[in-house]
Amino acid sequence: MLRNELTKADIVARYLPKKLIAVDQAEAFAPSNIALCKYWGKRQNELNLPVNSSLSVSLAHLGSHTQIRPATSGEDQVILNGQVLTADTPFAAKVISFVNLFRGQQNYPLIVDTRNNIPTAAGLASSASGFAALTLALNQYFQLALPDTVLSAFARMGSGSASRSVFTGFVEWRMGQQEDGMDSHAFPLDVSWPDLRVGLVKVSSAQKAVDSRAGMKRTVETSGLYQSWPAQAARDLETIHQALIDDDFSQLGATAEHNAMSMHATMIASWPPLLYWQAESVAAMQRVWALREAGVEVYFTMDAGPNLKLLFKAKDQLLLETEFPDLEVVAPFAEDSKTNLASESVNAAD
Amino acid sequence: MLRNELTKADIVARYLPKKLIAVDQAEAFAPSNIALCKYWGKRQNELNLPVNSSLSVSLAHLGSHTQIRPATSGEDQVILNGQVLTADTPFAAKVISFVNLFRGQQNYPLIVDTRNNIPTAAGLASSASGFAALTLALNQYFQLALPDTVLSAFARMGSGSASRSVFTGFVEWRMGQQEDGMDSHAFPLDVSWPDLRVGLVKVSSAQKAVDSRAGMKRTVETSGLYQSWPAQAARDLETIHQALIDDDFSQLGATAEHNAMSMHATMIASWPPLLYWQAESVAAMQRVWALREAGVEVYFTMDAGPNLKLLFKAKDQLLLETEFPDLEVVAPFAEDSKTNLASESVNAAD
User: Fold this and answer.
1) Of the candidates A227, A279, A286, which has its C-beta nearest B228's C-beta?
2) Gyration radius of chain A over CA positions
């Protein structure tokens, strides 16, 4: 951290009352999200401020449920999918240091109990939904009643893409320009595509060798092609905007695939090469391209991992389930769940 | 072609006598070459003028033998690996139109007999060695006694990378800047690395769906990351120069691999995505990286196809032949064959 650089704690403190008052228990859900225009590269590390704006679709019911309650033992406790973690595991340490941003020196020992219902093999990161759910739960627990955009900015300080998981449906995260990052938050787009389907193709559930944070860093520092990325991402974001306005699925799918491939290209041009693909990833891509060649409107996107996420329309679901037998299909707008999680998350104590 | 743009024929004519005189028969050999800093993208299509300079190593005895003799039938004949081709096959058409650059309207019906000794499965393009050997044979056949650099520039008009196949050993092709392209030719570098080995890994010998010419075009026109390529290639060329001066194999290998991956990255970021890799290509890359992780100094490069070309030192040959059972190993400097093919190619009639 540079001298005089704002810390997360400085920023959060501005939005909080001097003295916190907690309810008995709070609970929130936040969905996973799949970026159609990717976040890749930070302009500032401490606050997770991105080099480019991004756009995602949230995965409806797939995500993280987080409950917060007082730790009567006086010691913080982090529970993940029913398992109590010791404080020195990376996950527990991250959760506790995020909670500390809110409670500061005040004596609020907490139990943070998180359950992810993301299919473990699907290669979906849980940090986005996890930090979003935690932020929403803390907002309830300490009765902060913060605006959605502030909650999104806070979630972003936990994990960049968590800023988008605060909302459902299509979500845009504007990169912002302020030093404190408070204009770098997501907002929901007023578009609903009930026919859209996202298909999760499992290639491998192995732990990735290089995590996204380290991957971004290596790309920014060593990839000669990375300097063209911000302009590419800006163009793709505009094209996806237009596709949403025009209700043009092909344009959206093609741009999302091109954007994902461009992001992976920046990694492949890193040194040492950063290749998240497995042999099976290439085989799956080739199947998608062959299907498209045959007239099926299917596109894919990929994150910092080997798995493909297919984008297609409801009418092609059966065909794609035949082609990809283990496909896990999500309907992001099935119940037209264009709701505001921040305002509607449950405060169990109310 | 734009109006007023120079044609190949205009340019060649400048270097030729008004009236050609032929010998009875001429024969030349030119080696394949593997670029360590790749040629990817044309700034001018008619003359194959490149966007960036490149650097290669020639593959010693692997390449094309081309013999030219008069066609007593009065009809041109093109023979490839012993098979007579009809004039309308793409290969024959290209050869004849190249020969026409030299003989113009003069009546010299020819038999062009080419034999490639490149292992067919190794995924080596034969157009580089083919056009280089043809240029050298024509130089002999018509007793042109052209300087090597002119022959290299002529070969470039047949196929860009043929400019480098006119020479053995390490070869640099400077992009040049003249409109007629006559400063866009290769020259040999005065460095010999007898310990260097190139290992050809066969992944697939299937015909590629998109040829290099079309692939370059798509990349230049649709890849948002391509704009960063020329600067990357320029940096890599400088680094490889320095590695040659410092006798630094690791630097050479690492830069060649980084350069190849960067080139493929520009393709992957094209639309539709241009992926020359097969699933097996990724598996082979992962084997190389695992070997390097284990301390073996091996690097790879790849061209517009699915096959890997390994770079390693003589001492590791046995180990690599065990790891890659079908490896075809070439010693580019084994007989320290730093010769000038242009001057030494056989003129059977002399």
Assistant:
1) A227
2) 20
Fold for the domain defined by A8-193+338-344:
Ribosomal Protein S5; domain 2 (3.30.230)
- Residue B2 DSSP label: -
Would the CB atoms of B279 and A279 count as touching at under 8 Å?
A: yes
Question: Average pLDDT, stretch A108-133?
Answer: 86
Residue-averaged pLDDT of chain A: 92
Q: Across residues B311-317, what is the average pLDDT?
A: 98
pLDDT at B346 over 50: no
**CA distances to A342, A350, B56 from A346, in Å:** 9, 8, 65
For residue A231, the chain B residues in CB contact (below 8 A) are 224
Q: Which residues of A touch B282 (CB under 8 A)?
A: 275, 277-279, 281-282
Residue B338 has pLDDT above 50, yes or no: no
Q: How far is A266 from chain B (nearest CA, A)?
A: 7
Q: What average pLDDT score do residues A100-113 get?
A: 95
Judge contact between B123 and B306, C-beta under 8 A: yes
Distance from CA of A123 to the nearest CA of B (A): 19
Report the distance separating Cα B119 and Cα A60, nearest Å.
Answer: 54
Per CB-CB distance under 8 Å, the chain A contacts of B273 are: 257-258, 261, 285, 289
A225/B264 CB distance under 8 A: no
Q: How far apart are CA B57 and CA B196, in angstroms?
A: 10
* Contacts for B175 with CB less than 8 Å, ≥ 6 apart: B43, B49, B50, B51, B52, B53, B184
Contact criterion met (CB < 8 Å) for B228 and A231: no
Report the complex ipTM: 0.91
Interface size A-B, in CB pairs within 8 Å, comes to 96
> Coil, strand, or helix at residue B235?
helix
pLDDT digits (tens, 9 = 90+) for A45-58: 999 999 999 999 99
pLDDT tens for each residue of A181-208 = 999 999 999 999 999 999 999 887 776 7
Taking only the tens place, the pLDDT of each residue in B261-270 is: 999 999 999 9
CATH 3.10.180.10 for domain A196-330, yes or no, is: no
Instruction: For residue B309, give the nearest of B259, B348, B244 by alpha carbon.
Output: B259
Question: Which residues of B are less than 8 Å from A228 in CB distance?
Answer: 224-228
CA distance A265 to chain B (A): 4
Q: Hey, where are the domains in chain A?
A: 8-193+338-344, 196-330
Are A229 and B226 inside 8 Å of each other by CB? Answer: no
Mean pLDDT value of segment A3-11 = 84
User: According to CATH, what is the number of the domain B8-193?
Assistant: 3.30.230.10
* Residue B48 in this model has a pLDDT that exceeds 80: yes
